[in-house]
Structure prediction request, 384 residues.
Amino acid sequence: MAAVSTREQIVEIADDLFYRGGFEATSFADIAADIGISRGNFYYYFKTKDEILDAVIDRRLQRTSAMLDGWESQAPEPRERIVAFIELLIANRAPIMAYGCPVGTLCAELAKLDHVHRERAAEIFGLFARWLEKQFRALGADETAREWALHVLAWSQGVASLATAFKDEAFIRREVADITCWLDDRIVSLSQ
Amino acid sequence: MAAVSTREQIVEIADDLFYRGGFEATSFADIAADIGISRGNFYYYFKTKDEILDAVIDRRLQRTSAMLDGWESQAPEPRERIVAFIELLIANRAPIMAYGCPVGTLCAELAKLDHVHRERAAEIFGLFARWLEKQFRALGADETAREWALHVLAWSQGVASLATAFKDEAFIRREVADITCWLDDRIVSLSQ
DNA sequence: ACGTCATTAGGACAATTGTCCAAATCATGC
DNA sequence: GCATGATTTGGACAATTGTCCTAATGACGT
Prediction:
């Protein structure tokens, strides 16, 4: 019990600190201080910092999957599911304006570090992309489902990026409305 | 002469290394090794690493301004100028897929570091935003010029972000074509 | 050829990094 | 109450970090 708890605590705190401060800039000491354990204790659970990152990515993959599954069971209509995704930008506007999108910023940092877990981090985007593609397919957009999925994903990334730079909440809300309009236009075009 | 050259070399190499490896992960030793000068020599030109970052941001602001001015003098039509901006994504596709957008990734990193130069870095986005706004205004879009400018900027950021994660060149070309279509749709709507 | 000032080299510096280990502590079954 | 294994501690470690200083080198006017 205590063992699992400590390991989970390490991953949970590391996840948060990696997001808010970046992977490279977050040290073992930072994580240890936040949890309240000794620095040496890490070694019992993780041999290297990369192993912690690996566990953090696992956690994010799992939580992302759970969130996407939740939207599928809560919203019966594909449109509402996609809207739920888009409105993540509003729900998380405060941390996004402060630290950016957790997925995009991690992928960007690992790309610069040429890190071994670079592709595993990008797989979080992969989850979103395939899920969105599935929703567009459910709307009947077989041909363009993949393109539209990547488009929505890219759009949301761009909004997050500028929102971080300008700390502009009105901009987020405006773009979210725009994406929703774009989505409804696509839905209308499918029924014609 | 030699003095200016060394200082310029430091800023130039630092600019490149900050882009390819990130600010935090790039050390004085890395920059010195790339130039071929001793580590101690930095102190003659820059007292702290933040001062180098400051000079790098200055350089980027200046070069961005020069590029935007160049587009204005080379392309007579606002549409062609905006297209030139959009096609930066294609012209720089290789480094973008490897390291992301220089502006977006720097802003994201400085946001996480809560760095003093965070806003100065965001001002590079500011240059692009005001320039794009100016072009849309020249097209006659007075009301929506600012919104459209931020929209194009965000869109291009999103494309860069996903391009880095997926290393997908076809995706870049597809989205660039989409942005161009969007632009032409806006232009058509203005003449109606 | 000399003196002056700008430039550079090389290393000292304390602090921090990720890694790793031995000893101490804890919990649990007998 | 004791033994065993899981867990934690505190610190050692070599390397690297940004910062800073002194001495050497350079160029250039006189």
